[in-house]
Amino acid sequence: MKLLVRNLSRSTTEQELRILFSAHGTVTECNLVLDQATAKSKGFGFVVMPDEKAAKLALSNLHETKVANNKIRVKIAQ
């Protein structure tokens, strides 16, 4: 299941995002969306978790939690 993670701090790294979601299950893919001009984070990214149950658990546990002083939003990617 692919999850969209929004409102990330611009300083949050892919590794930090992977660790955050790995606490709830296996993460097969994790990537931040970067600005092409500056190569800096745009404040959102995607996490892919193959186990749907673990992905839904991560979504419910992490949605609207504080990460690096930002309240992140997690939802199923369309």
From TrEMBL:
Keyword entries, A-Z: RNA-binding
SUPFAM superfamilies in alphabetical order: RNA-binding domain, RBD (SSF54928)
Protein origin, superkingdom: Bacteria
Keyword RNA-binding: yes
Residues covered by the RRM domain: 1-78
Annotated GO MF terms: RNA binding
UniProt name for this protein: RNA recognition motif containing protein
Source organism per UniProt: Cognaticolwellia beringensis
